[in-house]
Amino acid sequence: MSKTHKLFKLFINTLKLSAFTFGGGYVILSLMENTFVNKLGWINKEEMLDMTAIAQSSPGAVAINASISVGYKLFGILGAVISTLGTVIPPLVIISLISFFYEAFISNKYIALVLKGMQAGVAALIMSVVIDMIKEVIVGKSFLIYVIALSSFALNVFLNVNIIYIILTLIITGLLYSFIERRNHAS
User: Where are the transmembrane segments (predicted)?
Assistant: First the structure.
């Protein structure tokens, strides 16, 4: 398969994913993994997990960040541009069309019901992504990971500790842990 054909396939796949995915970036992440890891085999699971982490931690829309990461990994800057175009075109067209018919959409009870139904589907897809990420990241890890995750959750939800303080504490803890581990392996 030629590079041009692969670039076209990248564009078509990102276009389809973006056009038929409702619920934002977290939903598209699982579909991207299914497409580029499972169906096409262009990326392995570990690389996709890394790209997901980068997409989530980078400023901007998660779907666009993920498509940039996938495109760049596969074909460099040209791949990033092609996959970004494929991801951006559908929402741009859909939102432009909706803006012309905004009054009709906002007052139509059937459209409101369809959107409510879509919310339930989106919630299920997001839960699927969360469960998949937990399986990839936490399963097989030490008990300490579970304690840290549950403690962070409890501190934020029950004791109202600001999430920024929790994240900063975990970053510092992770850096210290990595430093100690490297030191132990170097000895």
Answer: 7-29, 75-98, 110-131, 138-157, 163-180
Q: Verify that 125 and 183 share a domain, yes or no.
A: no
Q: Is the pTM of this model over 0.70?
A: no
CB 88 within 8 A of CB 64: yes
The total number of residues written for the chain in this structure: 187
In 3D, which of 110, 109, 128 has the Cα closest to residue 31?
Answer: 128
Residues 156 and 173 in one domain: yes
For residues 133 and 147, membership in a common domain is answered with no
Q: Predicted confidence band at 25 (pLDDT cuts at 50, 70, 90)?
A: low
Domain range holding 66?
3-137
The owner of tokens 């790209």 is 51
Longest Cα–Cα distance in the chain? 70
Name the domain count of the chain: 2
Please give the average per-residue pLDDT across 48-73, as a whole number: 87
Query: What token pair was written down for 99?
Result: 């803006």
Q: For the chain, what percent of residues have pLDDT higher than 90?
A: 28
Instruction: For 94-128, give the DSSP string.
Output: HHHHHHHTHHHHHH-HHHHHHHHHHHHHHHHHHHH
Which of these, 32, 45, 56, lies nearest to 137 by C-alpha position? Answer: 45
Q: How do residues 121-157 score in pLDDT, each as one tens digit? A: 777 777 777 777 777 666 666 777 778 888 998 999 9
